[in-house]
Amino acid sequence: MKLFKIRGGVHPEDRKALAGRQPIEAIPLPQLLHIPLQQHVGAAANPAVRRGQRVCKGDLIAERQGAVSAPVHASTSGRVVGIGRYPANHPSGLSVATITLQPDGEDRWSEALEGAADPFALAPEEIAARVAAAGVVGMGGATFPAAIKLNLRHKYRLHTLVINGSECEPYLTCDDRLMREQPVEVLDGVRIMAHALGIEHIIVAIEDNKPEAQAAMASAAAEFAAVRIARLPNRYPMGSEKHLVLALTGRETPARGLTADIGVVVHNPATAFAVHQALRLGRPLVERVVTVTGEAVARPGNLRVPLGTPVAHLLTHRGGLHEEPARLIAGGPMMGQPIPSRRVPIIKGTNGVLALTNQEIHRREPLPCIRCGSCVAACPCGLMPLEIAARTRSADLAGAVRLGLMDCIGCGSCAYVCPAHLPLTQYFNYAKGEMAARGRARHKQIETKRLAEQRSARLEAAKRAKREALARRKRETATAEVPE
Amino acid sequence: MSTLTDAPLVAGPFAHARTSVGRTMGLVMLALAPATLVGLWQFGWPAINLFLVTIASVLLAEAACLWLAGRRVRAHLLDGSALLTGWLLCMTLPPWAPWWIGVVGALLAIVVAKQVFGGLGQNLFNPAMVARVALLISFPVAMTTFVAPTPLFSPEAPDFIGGLAITFAGQDYDAMTSATVLGQVRTDLSAGLTLGDILPSTYQLSQAAIGTMAGSLGETSAVLLLMGGLFLIVKGVIAWQIPAAMLGTILVCATGMHLIDPLHYLHPGYHLLSGATVLAAFFIATDPVTAPVSVGGRLLYGIGCGLLVYVIRTWSGYPEGAAFAVLLMNACTPLIDHYLRPRIYGRDRRGEPLDYRDQGRERPA
Amino acid sequence: MIAPILSLTLLGLALGTLLGMAARFLKVEQNPLQDEIEGLLPGSQCGQCGYPGCTAAAAAVAAGEAAVTLCPPGGRALVEELAAKLGVSVDLAGIQDQGPRVAHIHERLCSGCTKCMKRCPTDAILGGPKMIHAVFADACTGCGKCHEVCPQECIDMRPPPVALPNWHWPKPLLAA
Q: In angstroms, rounded to a whole number, what is the distance separating the alpha carbons of residues A284 and A361?
C-alpha cells in the first residue's frame, strides 16, 4: 500500500518492551468502584439508580442526557453505596459527580443483556442505537460517543474506515496486546462498524514496531478482501487521526474540519472490540485494557480493568512502586495528564497508568529560548511554536491565534525537542483555555446585556402604566368635580 | 528569562530528547576546537594570550551583567553561550592583537550586543560580529595588522615572555607583518595590477586550505572548519540550509565574475577558502538567535549573506565582508520570519482552510 | 542665494496649503466609533469606571478622554479589544486581571429587605420582601451595586466557583 510522508514529528524511545511482553491479565475487584457520570465528551449522564439499590454487571446506572452524551453502566454486580462527588481523573484535582459501587464479589452479568444473532442483518440505525445504548466511546483517549461517529454517513460521503492501531505514544501497549490476543473479535467489531457506516474499504493501520499485531490482524483479515493492513513507519504522532489519514491517503484534513470531510472515519481497535461485545453479546462498556508501566512500577503489565477501579488498586496489583515516582500519569508520556491522587478511578479513556522516574522524564529548568528552530522542524502541523509561545507569554492571544494556535493538536513534539526545556505545550494549553474562557465571558456578556435591557424595558413599562393610571384617575376626578 | 517555579500543576510532555542549550553550545565548541588549536599553534604565544584574555573578559562581563540584572549567575554562565561568543570573536581577531582589543571586544559583544537587549535569545544582531565591526571601525590599524604564521617553538616565534610582551606591553612586531590574501589582492588591484601579476607572488590555494598563511585565527584552516561544520550538521546542531545557500551563492557569483574577467576577479577557490568564509558560513551565520527559523527563510538568508559577502569583497572599501554581510542579514531576519512561514497543516499558503472540490469521492490508492 | 530661499519658501507654502485643504475636505466624521465601543462594554451601567453609565463611558473612550483600562468588569480581554479598536498600544503586562467576580449572599445574615434586588441591573437576585435572597451567578456581572447597598453587609464579591468545564491549565510561571 502506498504511504505518504508526514512533516515533522519526533522519534522518542518507544519503551514498549517494559509492558509489551505481558499478556493481558484480569485483576481482582477492589473494595469500592467509583464510576464518574461523565467519562465522555458531551453532557454528563443522569443517575438512574438510588443509593442502596442492588445492580448486576452491565445494568444501566446513569442515562444519556441530550444528543452528545453516553450512558454509564455498572462494572460489576453489587450495591450502590453512594451518589455524590469524588475526585476526578483529571489534572485539576476537582471533584465530579460519581456513583460508588460496592462489589458483591460474584461479578454476575445482568440477564437482560442480549446480543444480536446477526449484526449484519440489522439496519445501520439499529446498530448505532445499540452502540449508543452500550455507552461505547472512543477508547483511544478522545472519548467521543462512538454512535455519533457511526451516524456520520448521513452528512458526509464516506469511503474508508481506518482502524488506528498505531499506538504511537511510548510505553503504551494496550491496543497492541488486544490486537495480538483477540484479533478475531476486534476485526468483527470493525466489520460491524463498517456495515453501520455503509463503507466497504477498511484499513487497519499498525506501526512497524508491532510486527506480531500486524501478523495477527493480517491473518484474521485474510478471508475479508475489503480489509487491508497498512504497515506504518514508526514515528510520533502517527496516531494523530489527521496525520494518520494523511499518511494513508495523501490528503490533509481541512482546518477546523473532520476527517469525514475527506471521506474517512477513524476508530480505535479497543472501540471496535467494544462494538463487537455490544452487538454480539449485548454487553455494554464496563471494562478496558490498561497498561501499567514505568521504571517505578515493580512489575509492568497490561490489565483488563473494570471501570471505576482506583489507580492505587492497579499499582498494588503490579507489585507496588519500588520508588516514589516523579510523576504519575494517565495516558502516554507525550499527551498524558498528571493524576492528582491515587484514589482516582480508571475511566473509559484511560489507556495507561505511568509511574515515571526523573531519569525517564528528563526535565530541566527552562532557559530562555535561543530560537534554534528545532520546534519548527518538529511540529507536524507546520506551526512555529516558538512564536506562538512568545505571543502567549506577552498576553497577545489574538496574535497567537493568528499564528495558528487553534490548529495545534497538542502532541508535545515541540516541547520534546526544545533544548531550552521550555514548557511549550503548557503555554498552548493555557492559551487555548484562556480563549475558551473569553468566549464564555463574551457569551455571558451578551446574555447579561439582554437581561439588563429587559429590565429597563420592564421598569419603563411599569412607570408608563403608573403615569397612565394617574392620568386616568385625574380625568375621572375632574369629570366628577364638574358642577352639575 | 528565569526559572519556572515548580508550580504544583505541570503539563506534559513527560519525556524529552537528550538535548539542552549547554549540549548545543558544547558541540559547537567541539567543532571549533581542531581549527582553533591549529591556529593557536600556528601563531604562538601571543595568540594564546589573546584567546585567554578574550575568554576571561566575556565570562566576567556576562557574570557582571547577570548579577546586575538579578538573574542566577551560575546557571546562565554555564549554558556556554557567552563562552562561545568570546571564542568566535577571538577567531576573527588578528592573532597578535594587543590585550585591550580582546577586552573591549568582549565588553561590546556581551554588554552592548547581548545583555542590553535582554540576555540570551533576545539580541537582534550577532554579538561577536557587532564587536568585530565596532573594533574594525574604531581601531582600523590594530585590526588590520596581520602576521605570517610562526609556529610555536619554531626559531622565529616569540617565546612565552616575548608573547607576553607582544600582547600586554604593545611590543612592536613590524618585521613580521604580512597581509591576508584578500587584503593583498585588494591593495594591488586598486593599484592597477592584474591578478596574473599578484597571485603567484602571494601564495597558493593549498596554503589557504590548510592554514599556513596570514589571517585571523578563523581564517586559516578552512579544511578543519569545514569538517567541524559538517560534524555539526550531522549532529543536528545546525541546519544545512544556511551554509549551503551562502557558500553556493559565493561560488556562483565568483565563478560568474571570474569567467567574465579572470584578470580582475578572483577564482572562486580563493573566495571560498580564504577570509572567514567557512567560519562565517558554518559558525557565524548559523547563530540560532539571529537567523530565521524556517527552511525557506534560512535559504533566503544564506543567499543574502553570500551575495553581500561577494559584493562587499569585490566592490567596497573593505577586503573582508563576512561580518558586515551577517549583520545586514540579521537586520532582515524578523521580516524574513514574518513572511516566510511554513504552511500550516490543513490550510493553503494563504492560511485559508483547504478546499477539496470532490469532498470524499476518491478512493485511496 | 535668492534661488534657494525662494524655492524653499514656495515649497513650504505649497505643502502647507495642500495639508490645509486635506484637513478640511478629507476630514473623517467622528463617532460611529462610540457605538461600537458601547457594544463592547458590559452594559450593566455599574458606574465602576466613574462615568454615569456605559454610554457615557463609551463616549469618553471614543473621544480619548478615558483610558482603555477603565472598565474593571471587562477584564483584560476588554482592554485588548478596546486597544485594538482604537489603535492604541497598551502595556498589558501591567494590567491586573482580577478575573470575573460574582456576588454571593450569606443567607444567614440576609434580612429580606429587597434593597439589593431593586438595584441589580440584570435581575440576577431572586427573592421577595422578608424572604432570603439568592444570586444567579450566571446572570451576575459583578458590578457591585448590591454590595454597596446591603444594610446587613451580607453580600461579598467572589470569583465564580471553578468547575471542570471552565477549568483550564494555568500559565507557566516564570519567577525571578
A: 37
- The residues, any chain, with a CB within 8 Å of residue A174's CB and separated by 6 or more, are A167, A270, A288, A289, A290, A291, A302, A351, A352
3-state helix, strand, coil in chain B (%, to 5): 60, 0, 35
pLDDT at A484: 54
Mean pLDDT for B356-360 is 64
Task: Please give the Cα distance from A234 to B330 (Å, whole number).
Answer: 38
Confirm or reject CATH 3.30.110 for domain A365-475, answering yes or no.
no
A361/B15 Cβ within 8 A: yes
What architecture is domain A17-287? Answer: 3-Layer(aba) Sandwich (3.40)
pTM of the model: 0.85
**A-chain residues within 8 Å CB-CB of C92?**
394-396
Residues of A with Cβ-Cβ distance to B11 under 8 angstroms: 91, 337-338, 423, 425-426, 429
Cα torsion angle, B54, B59, B64, B68, sign: positive
DSSP-derived 3-state class of residue A167: coil
Q: Do A434 and C124 touch (CB under 8 A)?
A: no
Q: Is A62 exposed, middle or buried (0-12, 13-18, 19+ CB in 10 A)?
A: buried
Chain B, residues 62-81, CB within 8 A of chain C, namely 70-71
- Domains observed in chain C: 33-94 (1.10.15.40), 102-164 (3.30.70.20)
- CA C8 to chain CA mean position, Å: 49
Q: What's the mean pLDDT in A384-410?
A: 93
Which pLDDT score, from 0 to 100, does residue B210 have?
Answer: 62
Domains of chain B by residue range: 21-339
CA-closest candidate to residue B146, choices B43, B283, B280, B269: B43
From the list A414, A307, A367, A430, the residue with the least C-alpha distance to A61 is: A307
CB contact (8 A) between residue A440 and residue C166: yes
Across the interface, of C123, C166, C170, the residue whose CB is closest to A430 is C170
- Out of A398, A436, A451, name the one closest to residue C139 (CB): A451
Chain C residues with beta carbon closer than 8 angstroms to that of B4 = 172-175
Taking an 8 Å cut-off on Cβ atoms, the answer to whether B293 and A386 are in contact is yes
Q: Is residue C96's pLDDT more than 80? A: no
pLDDT for position A3:
93
> Which among C170, C173, C174 is the nearest to B1, CB-wise?
C174
pLDDT of A119 over the 60 cut: yes
**Alpha helix (H) ranges present in A151-220?**
174-181, 183-197, 211-220
The CATH number corresponding to A288-361 among 3.10.20.600, 2.40.30.20, 3.20.20.80, 3.40.50.800 equals 3.10.20.600
Residues whose CB is less than 8 angstroms from the CB of residue A120 and which lie 6 or more positions away in sequence, other chains included: A191, A192, A195
Evaluate the CA torsion angle B4, B8, B10, B15 in order and state its sign. Answer: positive
Cβ-nearest to A333 among B14, B289, B363: B14
Q: How far is B328 from chain A (nearest CA, A)?
A: 19
Q: How far is B270 from chain A (nearest CA, A)?
A: 31
Where do the domains of chain A lie? Answer: 17-287, 288-361, 365-475
Res C47 pLDDT > 80: no
Which chain B residues are within 8 Å of A170, Cβ to Cβ?
A: 15
CB atoms within 10 A of CB C106: 13
Chain B residue numbers touching A354 (CB-CB < 8 A): 14
Dihedral angle of Cα B255, B256, B258, B259, to the nearest 10 degrees: 110
Of A213, C160, A10, nearest to B17 (Cα)?
Answer: A10
A390 contacts chain B (CB < 8 A) = no
- Residue written as grid cell 482592554: C79
Say which CATH topology domain B21-339 has: Ammonium transporter fold (1.10.3430)
